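Key idea: predict the complex, not the pieces.
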Amino acid sequence: MDRTKQISEAIVQLKWDEIAALTNEALEAGIPALKILDQGLVPGMSAVGIKFRDGEVFLPELLLSAKTMKTALEILLPILSQQGTGFIGRVIIGTVSGDLHDIGRKIVASMLQGNGFEVIDLGIDVDPEKFVEVVRDNDVQILGLSALLTSTMPMMEATIKALEKARLRQKVKVMVGGASVTQAYADRIGADGYGADAVAAVEKARALISTQPH
Amino acid sequence: MFRVLERKEPDMVPHFELGIDRKVMNKILPGASFEEFIEHMDWDALMSIDRDFWEVEVLDESRRIFRDEWGTLKSYTHEYVPVPLEATIKSEKELENYQPPDPDKESRFEQIQRWVKRYEGERAIIAMVMDHNSMSSDILGFEERLMAFYTNPELVLRVHQMVLDYFLRYINNVIEAGADIILIGGDWAYKNGPMFSLEHYHKFVLPPFKAMVQQAKKRGVYVMKHSDGNCWSFLDSIIEAGVDGFHPIDPTADMDIGEVKQKYGDRLCLIGNVDCAATLSFGTVEEVRQETKDVIRKAGVGGGLIVASSNTIHSAVKPENYVEMVRTIREYGRYPLDIKALG
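Result:
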């Protein structure tokens, strides 16, 4: 099995304690960091994402495979930054409310990372003003908003309005998600994308990034 | 209440809520205490929550960060349940030095004792505990613990045992204090299904849960289990463990209460499931009335139904909708049920 395939297998098989060695060996064998990302990490995380969506694996598996992927990514990152390349885009993600159940956002963040995005995760309880500030101060293509409770979904609309007011709305594509969020709601508030689950979110993000200059 | 938990037909479909936001209460009965409110709405049960009596140490007033008596760092947000910020125990070594709270501390049981004096014979007193699954998630960190199913299962099992020891004593104590029902909280599933595989469920979740259920059952006390999400795959095993009632039958997670009634109605009392995410928050009064009637029609025949919202009456629920829900239960919930009228 070639080394990048070994790495994507390791992510699927939850080889959290072997991945660092596998990654370093691949680099030493002369495989470019970008190739390890594109042909090792991305397919691995994608495969796990699909198994998760289809109910073949669950949260422990998803979380551990994401951790495995991140271990490899941490080794590759300094090399990739040096080369000034690697990420297909930068995403800012946050939960608009003080939500206890923020696992969904974290899953999407991990999946996006595993698919080659650079992700800035702002956590929970993020005000519209904070989102605007981070969008203003960073070179970012996608803003992802999550909300679990119907009572806090209006904060998504408020965030979009705040971006408009700050004249930053055109800078980013806004994606929304969360258990109570629907495509209809996304359309109503003028969001650019909605994903019903993490796999759909990543697919949508990939589609949107190809329309954003960066 | 008790007839319903035994799947017998009562006089009237009972009602209570796991929680109600103060703002909603104040709109319905301004300035009322919780007890005055539930008497006004005539709840059939009221619930005392273990977590409400944990001592907290405020660490940062402005950012509302505190440490609770289990040692977990948490933050208050504008929702009711505080959010854990970091794990309390990260290693075996930290577990060696860790001291769990005292399940015998008197202040935990004062509310139950008060309520028993005030309501005995009239309203059921429920004591709510978290399950070991959620409690140990707070202690080990939600994600860290799930990953530890693979990376450090021994640590997970040891923390489970420690938490279980607390809850077994606590359950004994609340029963001494007069609780009629134990409600075990803790979400096992979300919208799309369980949070863990069946294998992990049987290894990590079910055995301590069974122990908690049996601790109550052997003292003649009823047990309810709460979990949000799609819980279809757990129902057989929780019935086998001895659970009498299940809450809330999450309608946003593919759990139709009629279907659950068909498959499990003879073995499980159902508590739920008027949608508090959509109908109670954004629906019209007519929609609430219709949905409440639907729930009674689908799941009330023969008893075994307590009508409640699909989680709690949270801050976005329109007060008039909640009032209509209760009014509808009283109007249409008298046995024998008039199925035609519930159509």
